[in-house]
Amino acid sequence: MNAISEQGLKAPAVKLLINGQFVESKTTEWREVINPATQEVLARVPFATQDEINQAVAAAKEAFKTWRKTPIGARARIFLKYQELIRANMKELAALLTAEQGKTLPDAEGDVFRGLEVVEHAASVGNLQLGELANNVANGVDTYTLLQPLGVCAGITPFNFPAMIPLWMFPMAIATGNTFVLKPSEQDPMVTMRLCELALEAGIPAGVLNVIHGGEMAVNAICDHPDIKAVSFVGSTKVGTHVYNRASLAGKRVQCMMGAKNHAIVLPDANKEQTLNAIAGASFGAAGQRCMALPVVVLVGEAQKWLPELVEKAKTLKVSAGTEQGADLGPVISCSALSRIEGLIERGVADGAKLELDGRKPNVPGFEKGNFVGPTIFSGVKPGMAIYDQEIFGPVLCVVEAATLEEAIEFINANPNGNGTAIFTQSGAAAHKFQEDIDVGQVGINVPIPVPVPLFSFSGSRASKLGDLGPYGKQVILFYTQTKTVTARWFDDQSTGGLNTTISLK
């Protein structure tokens, strides 16, 4: 946790949301929210006390008693209103996001919009939360299922998508009848809090949505609290593994979307210009700070000759503050993140990879204090090198060579992670072989970042995911509800069913 500077002491305090009220924390522990392009202190965020966390959970538990009984149509209408409010405030939300997170304004709008799509999906909850019925499974017996809410659920979200990922979580949880405690990233909570203000304006009742802030203590409190029934997490593999183990041992449902090392295969028959543009955008957009970014490209056969053109394409990308016109990638989130990325680039050189394009210390006029690193490309990358084995979370692309499609598939399947993968080709046969043989949960065919729309579920796999049900889509309905099976038999007045079951109605 950072010490609070004199500038930070003068900055506005981010509030907690407890039982429908935005309240200032009584904590003595604070962290600064810093603009990564300028180092300006935008706000100070509290690390909530244990008592405040308990208050938030208690408010959610109390609100659940009435919220779970709220008609499904009434819940859906709140999210119809909420999506209207998000659309009306899109520019403001994007500006807030860019200021605290650093991504370009168009990318920030995309962040909000992808979350908005899930809010739209939550408004369809009446069609999603349907049980099943089997009529007359035995003599006069029907069996049916109810999908009932769990109770208090919680979400822990990362810095890289401070609008989209909270919107992956609380709308679906609340629409299905649960109440929610959210812990956004302490590095950039401002846009998340604005989204929560709009949620209350849309009609979410007091206590149904609560927000706490903090670090490790807050995470552990969520994992341990006996009144929290389910935990959703997106973030690093280290923290996600800790959350999954600790919360599971406490008897909770847990879904953790974690680290990745995504690969794309480029076959020689691919459309060269479209492929190079797609790789550049997926590898360097958002400064590489995406769990679905594309940090590894496998060039197959003759496609290996495309490397110089890929380097030239990367050189054309503009590095600047996210507010600047024409910026393609902004700063990384913090000084420590920048130091880590630069250190890994050094390691790459030391490990024997060839540095084709060095993005360290770019010249960004007017933003000399920013946490900038430009597009960086290595060739000759092999497993065992730090730049391949670790998730860099920066604009660094590793280029690998393979002789055949089979060799490329085998190479990708040997990596422990399984968030996303892609192939670039004009061959239907090659694409079909790839989608069948690749052991990765989300596959793109000429699509570099294959994140599914909310009609489907995010389906990362292997070391990138813990828990069997993914965010949004049909899977998350099952995650946020308990299936209750009812077997019913009714007797008419003349039937005793073999026993004296007559009931007097007088």
Automatic annotation (TrEMBL):
Belongs to the aldehyde dehydrogenase family. InterPro entries: Ald_DH/histidinol_DH, Ald_DH_C, Ald_DH_N, Aldehyde_DH_dom, MeMal-semiAld_DH. It comes from Vandammella animalimorsus. PANTHER family: MALONATE-SEMIALDEHYDE DEHYDROGENASE, METHYLMALONATE-SEMIALDEHYDE DEHYDROGENASE [ACYLATING], MITOCHONDRIAL. Residues 22-486 form the Aldehyde dehydrogenase domain. GO terms for molecular function: methylmalonate-semialdehyde dehydrogenase (acylating, NAD) activity. Keywords: NAD, Oxidoreductase. Its EC number is 1.2.1.27. One of its GO terms (biological process) is thymine catabolic process. This is methylmalonate-semialdehyde dehydrogenase (CoA acylating). Pfam families: Aldedh.
